[in-house]
Automatic annotation (TrEMBL):
Keyword Transmembrane helix: yes
Chain segments annotated as transmembrane: 49-75, 81-102
UniProt KW keywords: Membrane, Transmembrane, Transmembrane helix
Superkingdom, natural source: Bacteria
Identification of the protein by name: SMODS and SLOG-associating 2TM effector domain-containing protein
Length: 189
């Protein structure tokens, strides 16, 4: 796995202590922006996958059993059996609606991929810092800040991608109404 363990995420810094000692300001910037977002992405991905699996399992199981319930009535009273079938049908519809509305599978993939990308950014940053440290140039602090700025710029691009992915998926009701009106033929005279 490209990410790190939960224990490592609980620690403040997930990189070499020598990087933190040599470039404390850069380490604080990376920790403040990247590490907190990695924790957020991991938490959100875990929540979304749980909801996706639970609601999906409910939808699948009830969808499969619904036709069987029509053929093999569970309740002897016919009226109560119809009510039971209606309730099961409504639960299936609610589960499908929730799954489509919240897009747990799409968001789970987005958050998990964002976490992996952040892990890669941290690793690239750490390698750059170690290379600067090993080269021991006179302007090491300036080079370290420049590399940190590059990583933070890429982080901003990543957040822009996340925002556009999440908010472009939202379709305002007005645009749906316009699409429906355009698709309907005009009334016949």
């Amino acid at each position: 796995m490209l990410g790190v363990s939960r224990e490592a995420l609980q620690r403040s810094y997930q990189w070499s202590p020598e990087v933190t000692d040599a470039f404390p300001a850069c380490a604080q910037l990376i920790d403040r922006f990247l590490t907190l977002h990695r924790r957020r992405y991991r938490r959100l991905a875990s929540l979304h996958v749980i909801w996706f699996k639970v609601i999906g399992a409910i939808e699948i199981v009830l969808s499969i059993t619904l036709p069987l319930l029509f053929v093999v009535p569970i309740i002897r009273d016919e009226r109560k059996n119809y009510v039971f079938l209606a309730v099961v049908s409504v639960v299936v519809a609610i589960a499908a609606g929730l799954r489509n509305f919240y897009s747990w599978d799409t968001n789970w993939r987005l958050y998990r991929s964002q976490e992996f990308i952040l892990a890669g950014l941290v690793a690239q940053w750490e390698v750059s810092m170690l290379q600067i440290l090993r080269a021991n140039p006179a302007d090491a602090q300036i080079l370290a800040l420049d590399e940190t700025a590059v990583v933070l710029t890429r982080l901003t691009e990543l957040f822009d991608h996340e925002n556009s992915t999440l908010f472009n998926a939202v379709v305002p009701p007005e645009s749906v109404k316009k699409t429906v009106r355009v698709a309907q033929p005009p009334p016949a005279p």
